[in-house]
Design brief:
Blueprint: E1 7-8, H1 9-18, E2 26-28, E3 31-35, E4 41-45, E5 53-54, H2 56-65, H3 70-77
Antiparallel strand pairs: 1-5, 2-3, 3-4
C-alpha cells in the first residue's frame, strides 16, 4: 500500500511552498501560515524545539488540507 513519505524539515518546507500560493508561506510563532492553491488559509502548528522530521501521518493530513493527491506528492518527491 502506497502512502505519504516522512519528510525532513527542509523537505517539509519545500512541500508547503510547492503546494501553496507562491509568496504566501510564512513561519511565525512556531506555525507555518499560508494560502492553499484554492486561496484558502491554512496553518500548520510545529512543536517547539528540535523537530527535524515530520511523520507520514502529519504529511498526509497536511496534504489533505492542501488538496494534494498521493500521485501529486509522489511526482514532487522524486
Amino acid at each position: 500500500m502506497r502512502k505519504f513519505q516522512e519528510l525532513h524539515r527542509h523537505e517539509f518546507e519545500q512541500f508547503l511552498e510547492r503546494f501553496s500560493i507562491r509568496g504566501s508561506l510564512k513561519f511565525r510563532n512556531n506555525k507555518w501560515i499560508g494560502l492553499t492553491r484554492d486561496g484558502k488559509p491554512f496553518t500548520v502548528h510545529v512543536k517547539h524545539g528540535t523537530t527535524r522530521k515530520y511523520s507520514s501521518r502529519l504529511v498526509e493530513a497536511v496534504a489533505k488540507d492542501l488538496s494534494v493527491t498521493l500521485e501529486e506528492f509522489e511526482e514532487w518527491y522524486k
